[in-house]
Amino acid sequence: MTHTLLIENYIDGGWHRSAATVHADVVNPATVEVLARVPLSPTAEVNLAVEAAARAFPGWRRTPATERVQYLFKLRALLVENLDDLARTITLECGKTLDEARAEMRRAVENVEVACGIPILMQGYNSEDIASGIDETLIRQPVGVCAIIAPFNFPGMIPFWYLPYAIACGNTVLVKPSERVPLTMHKIAGLIAQTGLPSGVVNVVHGAKEAVDAILDHPAVRAVSMVGSTAVARYIYGRAAANGKRAQCQGGAKNLSVVLPDADMETTTRVLADSAFGSAGQRCLATSLAVAVGPARTPFTDAICEAASRRVVGYGLDAGVEMGPVISQQSKARIEGLIGQGMAEGARIAVDGRGATIAGYERGNFIRPTILTDVPVGSTAFKTEIFGPVLGMIYVETVEEALALVNNGEYGNMACLFTTSGAAARKFRYEADAGNIGINIGVAAPMAFFPFSGWKASFFGDLHGQGMDAVEFFTQKKVVVERWPKEWSRKF
Ligand code: NAD
Question: Distances in Å between the alpha carbon of 382 and those of 92, 245, 385, 404, 443?
Answer without folding.
Answer: 32, 35, 8, 14, 19
